[in-house]
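So, read this over?
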Amino acid sequence: MGLFTVALAAMLKCYSLQAALALDWRREHSKVQHKINGLLMDVVQLKTLIHVAELGSLSRAAHRLHVAPPALSRQIRQLEKELGVYLFERHGRGMIITEAGSEVLQHAIRVMDELEAIRCSVMGGQTAFCGAVAIGTTPTIAEIVTVPLVK
């Protein structure tokens, strides 16, 4: 019985060591997953950044994107949290992009351009044209000419 007790104690010690190692691995894996899941900028956040910077206002950007202003505000805050910098100075009349925000904005525009290039390259011959078009007109002509063009 003494040998059985020693063997059982050794097995339990080995099992508890394995369980401790597995638990330690799970904790580390959980920390990594939290970092990955909790801090990932996405295309929607970059698109929001571009529109807010262009329009200088969350409410105008929300109107353009057909999204509620609190949702856009949350996206900007999450991006700021991930990057560890303020991207905008907020005041009563809107938002002004910071120096760090301008740098991020340049990258965001390049990312969006690359995504559009991917779409265009894959579409190949499926569409006649691909890309952005800019048309300049006077305000009077714009009302008459651009409405049919958009349709």
User: Anything to note?
Assistant: The chain has two domains: 1-38, 43-131. The CA atoms of residues 27 and 88 lie 36 Å apart. The chain has six helices and two strands.
